[in-house]
Structures are given as C-alpha cells and as structure tokens.
C-alpha cells in the first residue's frame, strides 16, 4: 500500500462547518481494521477534542506546540508526537505551513486499557 502525500493534500480544504469555521483541514486517506491515517493541516485555530483511540502525529512540515492536558510539547518538522486516548490536546502556535500525518489505532480507550 502506498499513500501519496501530495495527493492527500489535494483534497483539502473541505467546506467549513460549525466546528471548523476556517474549513475542514483533515482528510482520512486510509483505513484498515482499527487503524486510520489522516493528513491534518489546521488553519487559524485547532478545534479538535480528545479521541477514543491512541494517536500518533508525524510532523511533515512546520513548527508549533502540541498541548496535552495543559502540558506544552514544542515540535519541529520530522518530530513524532504521541497522544494517549481520551487526553485533551490541541495544536497551538503552529506555523502557517504546518502539516502532519495523524494515525489512530487500537481499542477504544487506548492500548493501556
């Protein structure tokens, strides 16, 4: 299986919603079993909330801060970030060119359950 980065980005943005007034800047590009892979490139503000599965971010471009439960984690291009299931998190202070893969997997509640 091959997932093309440029092709994934070509689907964005999707139309604005009440939750994402700047437009929807994530797109699921692959699903298999419990795993899903998205390309995510927020604009303006990151409105996401906690998720029921563990999540891994692979930063493809840009810089910023991922805040998990009020703890900031600065990141740069090439970094990998892990967010356990059910933890509040969002990206802040991200550069205008920020792009990341988001990978969800595992049972509801996370692997540690």
TrEMBL record:
SUPFAM superfamilies linked: RmlC-like cupins (SSF51182)
The record's annotation in InterPro entries points to: Cupin_2, RmlC-like_jellyroll, RmlC_Cupin_sf
Which Pfam families does the protein's record reference? Cupin_2
Q: Which residues form the Cupin type-2 domain?
A: 40-91
Query: What domain of life does the native source organism fall in?
Result: Bacteria
Membrane-spanning regions, if any?
none
Protein name in UniProt: Cupin domain-containing protein
What organism is recorded for this protein?
Granulicella rosea
């Amino acid at each position: 299986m091959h997932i093309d980065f440029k092709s994934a980005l070509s689907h964005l943005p999707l139309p604005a919603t009440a939750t994402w007034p700047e437009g929807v800047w994530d797109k699921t590009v692959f699903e298999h079993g419990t795993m899903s892979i998205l390309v995510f490139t927020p604009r303006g503000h990151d409105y996401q909330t906690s998720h029921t599965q563990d999540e891994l971010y692979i930063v493809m471009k840009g810089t910023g801060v991922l805040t998990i439960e009020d703890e900031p984690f600065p990141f740069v291009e090439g970094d990998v970030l892990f967010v356990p299931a059910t933890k509040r998190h969002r990206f802040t202070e991200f550069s205008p060119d920020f792009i990341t893969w988001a990978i969800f997997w595992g049972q509801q509640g996370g692997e540690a359950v």
